[in-house]
Fold BMP family ABC transporter substrate-binding protein.
Amino acid sequence: MKKLLKLFGVSAMCMALLLSLVACGEAPQEKKAEEPAKTEEAAAPAQEEPKTVKAGFVYVSPVGDAGYSYAHDQGRQAVDALDWVTTSFVESVPEGADSERVIRNMARKGFDIIFTTSFGYMDPTIKVGKEFPDAKFMHCSGFKKSANVTNYFGRVYQARFLTGMVAGAMTKTDKLGYVAAFPIPEVIRGINAFAVGARQMNPDVEVRVVWTKTWYDPALEKDAAKSLLDAGCDVIAQHQDSPAPQEAAEEAGMYSIGYNSDMSSFAPKAHLTSAIWNWGPVYTKTVEQVRDGSWKGDESIWWSMEDGVVDIAPMGPMVPEDVKSAVMAKRAELVKGNDICFVGPIKDQSGTIKIADGEKATDAQLHDMMWFVEGVVGTVK
């Protein structure tokens, strides 16, 4: 009997041990059922952080000039407000060797896109672009380009055409003065558009040009405006960055047309309107292209009034309502994309037809414009 009980005890122990082993063997099967979900979560690809774009700007004059560099810096500030962009700028950089040094320093510091905003920065930009093929460059107002350099500008001649209409309607002497920067197509094209617009309102008008060969020299530019006022001009326009010509016109009790930004605060009694820039859309679109990889070099881009890049400032209270209506009607055509500024017949100073009757100037003709239209008094030099 003891033997039987002992045998039964051993059997019971073996059964308990077997059940324990079976239980231990089932546990891994339950874990295997959970593993696929954990493995799947671990295999999910990590999302990349959005690219931060580092943008540099080089200016030819102070950002406080109320003119060209001021307008560019307003565009930079619009870009800087984006949370994925960081910007930096250097102001009052002379064209030539100094600009090359500044542009190269920016490229060395790893800027993703560098905007060089003056015509005279063209060759330095091309040169530095070759040294830093992985960097991207945008040069304003020039004509040269390369694999990593695109040139850009706006059809500001459209705004010039409208401001010319205002000046032509407001002159009493039929003499308009134009304080001009450098004899390059950009400036000549603007003078011509101004003259064409003015003569649409007053066929007897003439536009007298004085060259300063400066972008920013308030004293010299004010003196140039005074010389035009002394010659009988009663409306002064300009292509430089300072409001000095505006101030000269107000001091003489005459009218003025500003450039780059709304200059009415500097000459409230004289200021009729201004041809103005809005660089924000240009710079925002460019940094977005850099960020998403769609930016391309070796291009020439020319934005228009249709794109919202150029426009005119509000016309002053001294401008009659019928003049405002006529100007705004032409502006509406430009905003729709109908470029009406250089439609033939257009003659040069000698009376030679340069743009045939009914034809519009081509972009090539506008880019290469080195002649004055009929009604302009001055020389292209």
In short: The radius of gyration is 34 Å. The first helix runs from residue 2 to 43. The chain has two domains: 53-154+280-306, 156-276+308-377. Residues 1-47 have pLDDT under 50 and may be disordered.
